[in-house]
Amino acid sequence: EDSVLVIDSDLEGSCGLHHIRKNCPQVYVHGGIMERNNFSVAAGFGSTPGRQGIFGTFSAFQEMVISEITMARLNKANVLAHFSHSGVDDMADNTCHFGVNNFFADNGIGEDNTRLYFPADALQLKAMLGKVFHDPGLRFIYSTRSATPFIETTDGAKYFDEGYTFLPGKDEIIREGSAGYIVSYGEMLYRCLHAVELLKKDGLDIGLINKPTLNVLDSEMLAKIGNSPLALVVETQNVKTGLGSRYGTWLLENGFTTKYGHMGTSLEGQGGLTEQIPFQKMATEDIIAKVKSLM
């Protein structure tokens, strides 16, 4: 009880924090609608070694607390933050709820232990949370508003089920491919998997890489992808600020000149549910067309 403090920003049901309140009310604080203050409270509590501040709100509202994130990092605070409703999928509340600038949280200077995590399904989230909960520093875990199907292996088993161990900073091979790789994460991974399966049926052996730790370069996987014929990053983050805006740089800085493409959110949109992904031109057929254009 003395080592954890949970701060809610009046979104406990949407972010899943109400489960903590019901089971551990003694560590729970109703912070109200004031994200900047609430993140600062979590960081202040977590600035003592061995203590953990836990914070939650919508991904779109992360942009409100960027300066507080900077101060928390300088004070070596321990904060585990959950930002739900990330991306644009099933976002019925219009463009103001698009959580598309997640990488703004990785704004430290030089090397630091800030980590951005985005699981591909509920099983990976469970494995991830158990692994990173007690890590020091700032950890940001993103999730979608929409339900996502379980990622499966080629034989139909759940990829992140028993026997799976999450390794922070490591990318994961979902499907091998000799003709190049799609790199994705979160709610676009299952869509990319569908595209990859269809491409393989079409005789195009494209692989799929999951990047659950968004802001850490996996040198081994980068070399694998960089030495393949093509690399395509697919995400629902802002095309200006997302993973794709970094990945091409990583490839070039490390001497790789594979054909490179990036798909992300580029339109304001009008809210909407499942039609938002095709509206952003990231439907299965759009991903397939982009791969073929790179080939």
What strand line-up does the widest sheet have?
2-1-3-4-6-5
Structural class: alpha/beta
Which strand-content bin applies to the residues? 15-25%
Please report the number of helical segments: 10
- Report the biggest beta sheet as strand number plus sense, adding barrel if it closes: 6 strands, parallel
What does the overall shape look like?
A: globular
Instruction: Give the total of beta strands.
Output: 11
Mean pLDDT: 91
CA(first)-CA(last) distance: 56 Å
The helix/strand series, from N terminus to C terminus, equals EHHEHEHEEHEEEHEHEHEHH
Task: Evaluate the radius of gyration.
Answer: 19 Å
Low-confidence stretches: none
Question: Assembly state here?
Answer: single chain
